[in-house]
Write a structure and sequence with these properties.
Helix content of chain A: 40-55%
Strand content of chain A: 5-15%
Order of helices and strands of chain A: HEHEHHEHHEHHEHHEHEHHEHHEHHHEH
Number of helices of chain A: 19
Strand order of the largest sheet of chain A: 2-3-1-4-5
Radius of gyration of chain A: 27 Å
Number of strands of chain A: 10
Oligomer: homodimer
């Protein structure tokens, strides 16, 4: 692949000087439009041989662009903060906001290539990880993050010569792993792996651009123009919403409705004394498992969804009692902030992924995408339609990284909800919990019912199954939830 | 996943009779539009438990639809014809034409599931194959083949009971592999694998629809409505061409042009006597390798592309001389036939994939998509842009199936081409080879030049690299081509 790289390409100083002013001006204009548009962002992945001039390209880009909306994102060996979380966490943390350009050194490809070439990770696993990257990048692209993937290319002989020259310099940049590859055979292995990665991950939306980098002027001009093309795409108005196919409904309208929630047994209840004893047992189990040495390599993510007034908060309180407050955090999820709206919708949840050994509880969660955003038309059908797969991928990443993901739907009947709302209106210290919106939401009960059925059908996976709990009786609900969490922790602890 | 399947769903006879006439009529109307549109086709994958009623559903669909444009595509253990070719060949062979509906029993998922559940193929390989299916289905969808994926679901207990009942019947359908799964543990393994497959391959465009199949009426009504929804999508006018992003050009316009062809050494030549001797040696090598026992498990696919009058035919003739004519076929590729136009563009090449032990030579090939179709605007930018990846996938499948894929670009200079054209005009027996179009094509030389550079850069893979051969001297060219083929065959033979 990229056989044309073997052809020498040069741009002399005069020619570069001739095209540069226009390039500079165009880049600035386009970037200004990107910033004003506040819809899209750009990630420039800058990879390639050592000595090919990644640093020089970076400097050149800072010279050409408005640096206030430009960020360098450098990733090296994971810091303690980073290695305490799933691999992709650090890239999510730094996701540029709409209008921004992030230049990435040491992208998600780096680790995949290093594991394969240096640590001998097998070819199938290598391919699997590249396919996961494809899904990740597709999601970013659909969420408005445009990706420019640049590979600065040097002929192997030239690369070795430059590496040698670099070694002599005292103020040279940080040593990178690729330098460990000195043998000819290993070099060829790296090149083969890189072309395989290019093959699998060169999508129409984000293909790899290989930049011949022997000549500095040619390299910089080509990078500048490639960035210009991506900017041009990123400032286009988004395509009309219609063409994306509406996800097939799980259940045609003509057929009798099925509601997974109505199939639950709402008569479940626990008498007072039994409740206290069983709650105590489950809390102790949870304390024991979360304080074990093994848990420090794991982590617990709990999702609480449910009807309004089903008792999420009071259940979470019982969980909290069992946990060390230094390693426990509740994330109440309501409307996204400006910062969150400027990024892919999963960003706000990735930033709250706990470090290993910690517990994060989400009081409402990413499932808002397929619940409230679907019901209220905040998300288009193709957006919530693809979210099932994106959410499954997200939870898969958490589980692969060793986390235990437990998800609850707390269910009450419509009558019971009315009773609780009225109680909230009556009792002064409960009144703050009730908003006019709560009453309004009740009217959409059948829509939520259908959305919950789809959600459970499509996102209850073997690694992160849903647990539907009837919360008509709060005691029953709390004990069920805590027992499920304890069971899952026990199972994960082996 | 699909937890809501546990809820009983029924539709009594009266209710079914009430909704059926409208369903029947709607299906026929929509199908008529699909047929009249001649743009899209539909594949209905019908999978699920034995005894869930795949046959009954099939009969019902024949009852509802215009059977002239409906085909049942049943795949069981591969026939000799099928097992002599790559796995996907049989599905390509039967690809429905635009306007047709194909109902698939034993789809590409069947083998992937069976290998994993019954033959113990590992999880990583399983995932890899599912990802390959995703790429395949995305390509089909983009080419106008809509896919409806139905899984007829039965509770395991009900499934076992039906299986038992089936066993007693004398005229029961063919035994399938799933019946071999009797143990509870294995059944659960199958269910886990199926949900994993659903998770990975449920895309927005072609999600899995799980159909509760305990009640016949409910099952049939749901299948009918699901098909109706897909038909509705398939008869929509295609989305406007603009929104799909134009693939990034390999080389920005502002930079000096690079042509991989101009970098070749056109002075290569071979004197007459040396030519005969060397040609003879290479032909003998090719004869020897293609007649070895090992080759009967392999196969050879040669692609010849090049400038007009570069000498493709005369080179192919020298290759033919070395081969057994019973196992050798040349496919000259020109404008597609009506039958070919009605299907995804790779179909015409899949149908010509040789069986193992045979040699197929393509005189022009699937690369037309990124050459003439790109240059002449027969394909939209997003179509030829995604073709690089699709072609790489296609050749990857051939190589994985044991074939040797050798690709040649025969290059001559523009001057030499003019000389040969004039000669063709002069010499009577050569005149048939020259058309007015050949002269017209010459004007687009720079466009072809750029297209060839991109093509080689993006599709020269480690498993199927391009070989660029200067054909200024025909002797040189022929010997180079035959040597390359012999070398590749030798390498493949280990």
């Amino acid at each position: 692949m990229f056989d044309s790289m073997k052809i020498e390409r040069r741009l002399d100083k005069a020619a570069f000087k001739a095209l540069e002013p226009k390039l500079h001006e165009d880049l600035l204009d386009l970037q200004a439009e990107l910033i004003a548009g506040r819809k899209r962002s750009i990630l420039v992945l800058l990879g390639g041989a050592d000595g090919a001039g990644k640093g020089a390209v970076l400097n050149q880009l800072y010279g050409w662009l408005d640096a206030r909306k430009l960020r360098t994102l450098t990733y090296e060996a994971p810091t303690c903060e980073e290695s305490a979380r799933p691999d992709m966490w650090r890239y999510w943390r730094d996701m540029p906001a709409a209008g921004e350009i992030g230049i990435v050194l040491g992208s998600w490809y780096h680790d995949v290539l290093a594991s394969h070439v240096l640590d001998g990770e097998g070819r199938t696993r290598f391919t699997e990880r590249l396919n996961a990257i494809n899904r990740f990048e597709e999601m970013l692209w659909r969420e408005g993050v445009f990706i420019l993937k640049l590979w600065l290319y040097l002929e192997p002989r030239e690369a070795l010569a430059r590496l040698k020259a670099l070694r002599g310099k005292p103020d040279r940049p940080v040593v990178r792993e690729w330098e460990a590859i000195s043998g000819k055979k290993q070099r060829r292995h790296l090149e083969a792996a890189a072309t395989e990665a290019f093959r699998i991950t060169s999508t129409v939306e984000a293909p790899w651009i290989v930049v011949p980098s022997e000549d500095d002027h040619y390299r910089d001009a080509m990078v500048g123009h490639a960035l210009m093309e991506v900017l041009e795409k990123a400032i286009q108005p988004p395509p009309p919403p219609a063409p994306a196919p509406e996800p097939v409904k799980a259940l045609p309208d003509a057929l009798p409705k099925v509601s997974i929630l109505s199939s639950l047994d709402f008569s479940n209840a626990l008498p007072d004394d039994e409740y206290r004893a069983r709650l105590d047992i489950q809390q102790r189990r949870i304390t024991r498992f979360t304080q074990s040495a093994k848990f420090s390599k794991s982590g617990l993510v709990c999702v609480f969804e449910g009807s309004d007034a089903a008792g999420k908060s009071s259940t979470i309180m019982r969980l909290r009692q069992a946990l060390d407050p230094r390693h426990f955090l509740v994330h109440p999820i309501s409307a996204p902030t400006d910062e969150e709206k400027a990024r892919p919708y999963l960003w706000r949840f990735w930033r709250s992924v706990p470090k290993r050994g910690d517990v994060a509880v989400f009081d409402r969660s990413w499932y808002g995408r397929v619940l409230v955003e679907r019901v209220e038309n905040f998300a288009a059908p193709d957006e919530w339609g693809r979210a099932y797969g994106e959410i499954n991928d997200f939870e898969h990443e958490l589980c692969e990284a060793g986390y235990v993901v437990v998800k609850f739907w707390l269910a009450i009947t419509q009558d019971e909800q009315a009773r609780r709302f009225e109680e909230r209106e009556r009792v002064a210290y409960k009144r703050f919990k009730l908003t006019p919106e709560d009453w309004r939401n009740r009217e959409k009960w059948p829509l939520y019912d259908a959305a919950v059925t789809d959600m459970v059908d499509r996102t209850s996976t073997y690694y992160a199954p849903w647990t539907l709990v009837t919360a008509q009786d709060k005691h029953w609900c709390r004990v069920q939830v805590l027992t499920t969490i304890a069971d899952r922790l026990e199972k994960a602890a082996g």
